Amino acid sequence: MIELSALRKVYPSADGPVVALDGLDLTVGRGVVHGIVGRSGAGKSTLIRCLTGLEQPTSGTVTVDGTTLTGLSEKQLRAARRRMGMVFQHVNLLDSRTIAANVAFPLEVAGVPRERRRARVAELLDLVGLGHRAGAYPAQLSGGQKQRVGIARALATEPAVLLCDEPTSALDGETTRQILGLVRDLRDRLGITVVVITHEPSVVREVCDEVTLLEHGRVVQSGPLTEVVTATGSPLSRALVPVPDLPPEARRDLVEVTYATDDVATRDAFAAVAALGDDVEVLSATVEPLAGRRVGRLLVDAPRSGTDAVVARLRAAGLDPVVTGREAGGPDPAAGRREGVT
Ligand SMILES: Nc1ncnc2c1ncn2[C@@H]1O[C@H](COP(=O)(O)OP(=O)(O)OP(=O)(O)O)[C@@H](O)[C@H]1O
Ligand SMILES: [Mg+2]
């Protein structure tokens, strides 16, 4: 559905060229919700602008829904863009128009006749749960309702792809959950492909099937959520499955293991640890839902026998543990929760 190949974008600037995207390859399949995360300046917005054809890549290709955007004329680009819906952090609604008229706007531009427009707008507002507010003006809506209007408007021309740049950053927790629920629902009902740029781990956890971590315009890690968090030494693991705060005495090396519960049952992981006897202690054990699966994480302390024995035991049980903590030079075990994805 979406294919980026060797994508490079270099911006000229007074201080010399800025490489925003540096040879990026990425494929997103039809009907997948794909998250893009990374620090400020990693190239996330540049990536979305290249996807919409608003920005011409310096080299490489962008293919969306079978159309290669590079080298298209303005007119062809406009047609291709109609197959893409955009949702932003701040919804730019026309204040002087009702929400129905806002949703109708892209259909007017596309030359859809009035009767068809009316029917389509009613359908779209129902889809986002605002059928009863068609005559309201933007000023009369909450932030979450405005974002729903933004989503309805983005879907007006029946795009194959929905591109969202920080869609919930301006919303509170509960409203964020509702909007993400709507996005998943739309994907299920319309089979639409969704790309979501976000800095919030909770957004990735709640709505994405796959995630890509960008750093300096390059892909650092990419894949289905459960694969990404259970991979050895995964940079995204702590961000997506946070570690609880630990007592101060837990400052020596610890063994950490993250697993999908349908690969290894939590009781089997516990049994492997318990087999080591009294010396080992489970400092934390969590199981969290993630992309329709469940991911478990154990943090194990072995003050006397040391981490090697624990690692060997867990490996024998089919798990993939890592040693973490101060002495291993790894991050502070409590850091994941505080830092977030970026
Ligand atoms: N029009 C531009 N001209 C020059 N440099 C640019 C331009 N747009 C972006 N950049 C640079 O390209 C790099 C990537 O920027 P981009 O906006 O894609 O980052 P981002 O990941 O979206 O960051 P944020 O999380 O802050 O939105 C940055 O170094 C930025 O300064
Ligand atoms: Mg950005």
UniProtKB/TrEMBL annotation:
Family per similarity comment: Belongs to the ABC transporter superfamily.
PANTHER family: AMINO ACID IMPORT ATP-BINDING PROTEIN, METHIONINE IMPORT ATP-BINDING PROTEIN METN
Subunit structure: Homodimer. Forms a membrane-associated complex with FtsX.
Keywords: Amino-acid transport, ATP-binding, Cell membrane, Membrane, Nucleotide-binding, Translocase, Transport
Entry keyword annotation includes Secreted: no
Functional description taken from the UniProt entry: Part of the ABC transporter FtsEX involved in cellular division. Has ATPase activity.
Pfam family, one: ABC_tran
GO molecular function, one term: ATP hydrolysis activity
Annotated spans, Disordered: 322-342
Protein name per Swiss-Prot or TrEMBL: ATP-binding cassette domain-containing protein
Residue intervals of the ABC transporter domain: 2-241
Highest taxon above the source species: Bacteria
GO biological process: amino acid transport
Matching PROSITE patterns: ABC_TRANSPORTER_1, ABC_TRANSPORTER_2
Nucleus is among the record's keywords: no
Gene Ontology CC: plasma membrane
